[in-house]
Amino acid sequence: MAPVGGTAVQDHVALAEIELCGELIIAASAADEERLSLESIDEVLKVAEERDASGR
Predict the structure, then answer these.
(1) Whole-angstrom Cα Rg for the chain
(2) What is the 3-state secondary structure (H, E, C) of 2-47?
(3) Which pLDDT tens digit goes with each residue over 37-49?
(4) Helix, strand, or coil (residue 48)
(5) CA 13 centroid distance within chain
(6) How far apart (Å, rounded) are the C-alpha atoms in residues 23 and 3?
(7) Comparing 54 with 13, which gets the higher pLDDT?
(8) Which of 5, 34, 36, 53 is a good FRET partner for 28, with 20 to 30 A between their CA atoms?
(9) What is the Cα–Cα distance from 20 to 31, expressed in whole angstroms?
(10) At what angle do helices 38-45 and 12-30 cross, to 10 degrees?
């Protein structure tokens, strides 16, 4: 039961992970193949964009 007074705590890392999992589920359900390729997963998670932004 939530405490009275609205002291909600948000775990931003957990929320980001949940959002990424949701993106993967949507991509997997829309995919024609049985499994997503590693390239498809990287594309959904925007891995290349993160590498470019970090300069690696």
Answers:
(1) 16
(2) CCCCCCCCCCHHHHHHHHHHHHHHHHHHHCCCCCCCHHHHHHHHCH
(3) 999 999 999 887 7
(4) helix
(5) 10
(6) 32
(7) 13
(8) 53
(9) 16
(10) 130
